[in-house]
Design goal:
It is a single chain. This protein has a domain at about 20-85: lambda repressor-like DNA-binding domains (434 Repressor (Amino-terminal Domain)), CATH 1.10.260.40. It has helices at about 15-20, 25-45, 50-55, 60-65, 75-85. The chain is elongated. The longest helix has 20 residues, at about 25-45. The protein starts with 14 loop residues before the first helix and ends in a 23-residue tail after the last helix. The protein is mainly alpha-helical. Helices cover about 45% and strands about 0% of the residues.
Length: about 110
Amino acid sequence: MKKENLEVVRGSGNVFRDLGNKNADAEQFKAILAAEIIKSLDREHLTVRAAHGRTGIAAADFSRIRNADLGRFTVDRLMSIINRLGSRIEVKVRVRRVETVTHEKTA
């Protein structure tokens, strides 16, 4: 059996950044908010229809969140949904400088 040399690369902690998404931080934040919404639904044993009844948010939106189809959602909208489910959000922001990579030209 032939063994391949595999290099293990540690991720950045943000899968969207690791995949080269230009809005990686916003996408990561949206994913975290969506996960919190799903946790809230699960904790309360709410179906998407019951969540609609409690919040007035369309059941289809809860289905999209459960399926990680977040393209239609802004961070503000996801935060509003969390609030309507009865939770509050506390955000801590840490800004770090991005290390730039210089590339040498080869002729």
